[in-house]
């Protein structure tokens, strides 16, 4: 049995599929599509579930295991800059360091053992991300309460949204992971991150996303970027059509040093953004050109369709005109045929013509509209209708006519009317033995 064909993706679904692949690093397009379909094409929910899975939390859909997600961190050309803590100076410094060393070792060892054991008793609450935006807003409020409002502009959205915006806008994305328990975090935030020159550089040249690793959203990003110490900064950009970490800065960095390192990383990778901008402009121009060609084609197609429509209408008009003419011809033919049949019927119904010797006969000479003359005899006792029927039966007589007498000039009532329901006889009409009557054509009236 053949496998069913996959449903064709819409343009919006295709864009989400490519975004999800860039954000997660999954090479298999089928797996990306399967994951998105499980989440009803909600890319945010799909990325969050994928991050949770990488942190050991099983997916609600139990998908098969795949390669680690998020941005590309396997590039060995990533620039890494680590600031080590300063070594003790002098006899007093070394003495204090050696005295505190056992206590620090014991403290951190016990703390790590406690945390490790706690995982078996109670799962880490940071492993389940339920409100990523709430985690970001909560960190922003706590940062401003502790260090003030003079700081770089925080990106108010999830990590995946920041990646997507940086990719769309072709900008650098600076990620800061805040370790609340680390001894250098306060000094870094207060003296370095809130320095005016650092704020100016970050706000003008990159997006800035930050979160505490004590928050579920920050913790899962920490698991993806795998920082070694705090403070931790990662520079991410679109490189080779994938969001890639191009720089890692770890440790307590001074403001001038941070500016130099960020500037160096951006200058070293600016060509990739320039190249991507050129490719994107070329794609946009190609798309615009294709759209213009499609519009021109559609315009030509509509013009052709309009011409064809007008031709069809003209053909239909001519056909209807021909049918109308043909119907008029048939109607005229039927009318003439009916008229001829009526003439023949009238002719058959005419009484016989009286003989010239009959003293009650009337000789009538009719002058027709075509100047021809017709002569016939009638009986005084006959109705004027007989005269009308006789003239009507003649081929040369008009369809509608009236009969007029000259002395005195009058119209003879040969057909029934309101005044003469029963037309009079020839004698009652005052006709003499010999009469000349005129036939007036009424056909056009």
UniProtKB/TrEMBL annotation:
Keyword Endoplasmic reticulum: yes
Location(s) in or outside the cell: Cytoplasm; Endoplasmic reticulum; Lipid droplet
Pfam assignment, any one: UBX
Domain of life: Eukaryota
Annotated GO CC locations: lipid droplet; VCP-NPL4-UFD1 AAA ATPase complex
Biased composition (Basic and acidic residues): 303-348
Keywords on record: Coiled coil, Cytoplasm, Endoplasmic reticulum, Lipid droplet, Unfolded protein response
Keyword Endoplasmic reticulum found: yes
Ranges where the record places region Disordered: 299-361
GO function term, MF aspect, one: protein-macromolecule adaptor activity
SMART domains in alphabetical order: UAS
UBX domain: residues covered: 357-439
Gene Ontology BP terms: lipid droplet organization; proteasome-mediated ubiquitin-dependent protein catabolic process; response to unfolded protein; retrograde protein transport, ER to cytosol; stress granule disassembly
Family matches, as InterPro entries: FAF1_2-like_UAS, Thioredoxin-like_sf, UAS, UBA-like_sf, UBA_8, Ubiquitin-like_domsf, UBX_dom, UBX_domain-protein
Self-association state and partner proteins as the record states: Identified in a complex that contains SEL1L, OS9, FAF2/UBXD8, UBE2J1/UBC6E and AUP1. Interacts with YOD1. Interacts (via N-terminus) with UBQLN2 (via C-terminus). Interacts with PNPLA2 and UBAC2. Interacts with ZFAND2B; probably through VCP. Interacts with LMBR1L.
Function recorded in the entry: Plays an important role in endoplasmic reticulum-associated degradation (ERAD) that mediates ubiquitin-dependent degradation of misfolded endoplasmic reticulum proteins. By controlling the steady-state expression of the IGF1R receptor, indirectly regulates the insulin-like growth factor receptor signaling pathway. Involved in inhibition of lipid droplet degradation by binding to phospholipase PNPL2 and inhibiting its activity by promoting dissociation of PNPL2 from its endogenous activator, ABHD5 which inhibits the rate of triacylglycerol hydrolysis.
Protein name in the entry: FAS-associated factor 2
Gene name in the database record: Faf2
């Amino acid at each position: 049995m053949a496998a069913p064909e996959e449903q064709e993706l819409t343009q919006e679904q295709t864009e989400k599929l490519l975004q999800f692949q860039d954000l997660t690093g999954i090479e298999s397009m089928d797996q990306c599509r399967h994951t998105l379909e499980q989440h009803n094409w909600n890319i945010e929910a799909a990325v969050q579930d994928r991050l949770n899975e990488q942190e050991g939390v099983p997916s609600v859909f139990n998908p098969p295991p795949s390669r680690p997600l998020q941005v590309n961190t396997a590039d060995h050309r990533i620039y890494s800059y680590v600031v080590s803590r300063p070594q003790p100076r002098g006899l007093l410094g070394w003495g204090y360091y050696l005295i505190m060393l056992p206590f620090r070792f014991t403290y951190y060892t016990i703390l790590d053992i406690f945390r490790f054991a706690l995982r078996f008793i109670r799962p880490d609450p940071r492993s389940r991300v339920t409100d990523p935006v709430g985690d970001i807003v909560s960190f922003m409020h706590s940062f401003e309460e502790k260090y003030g409002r003079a700081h770089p502009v925080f990106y108010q959205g999830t990590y995946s949204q920041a990646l997507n915006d940086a990719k769309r806008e072709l900008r650098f994305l600076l990620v800061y992971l805040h370790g609340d328990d680390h001894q250098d975090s306060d000094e870094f935030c207060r003296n370095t991150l809130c320095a005016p020159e650092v704020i100016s550089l970050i706000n003008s040249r990159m997006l800035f996303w930050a979160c505490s690793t004590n928050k579920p959203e920050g913790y899962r990003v920490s698991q993806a970027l795998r920082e070694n110490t705090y403070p931790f900064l990662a520079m991410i950009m679109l490189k080779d059509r994938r969001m890639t970490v191009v720089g890692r800065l770890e440790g307590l960095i001074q403001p001038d040093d941070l500016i130099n390192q960020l500037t160096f990383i951006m200058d070293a990778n600016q060509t990739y953004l320039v190249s991507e901008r050129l490719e994107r402009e070329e794609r946009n121009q190609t798309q615009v050109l294709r759209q213009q060609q499609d519009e021109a084609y559609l315009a030509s197609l509509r013009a052709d369709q309009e011409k064809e429509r007008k031709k069809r209408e003209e053909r239909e008009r001519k056909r209807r005109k021909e049918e109308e003419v043909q119907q008029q011809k048939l109607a005229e033919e039927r009318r003439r045929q009916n008229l001829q049949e009526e003439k023949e019927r009238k002719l058959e119904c005419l009484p016989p013509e009286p003989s010239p010797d009959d003293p009650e006969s009337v000789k009538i000479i009719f002058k027709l509209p075509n100047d021809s003359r017709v002569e016939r005899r009638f009986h005084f006792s006959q109705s004027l209708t007989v005269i009308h029927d006789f003239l009507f039966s003649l081929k040369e007589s008009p369809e509608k006519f009236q009969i007029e007498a000259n002395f005195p000039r009058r119209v003879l009532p040969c057909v029934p009317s309101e005044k003469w329901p029963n037309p009079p006889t020839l004698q009652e009409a005052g006709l003499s033995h010999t009469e000349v009557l005129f036939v007036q054509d009424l056909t056009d009236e």
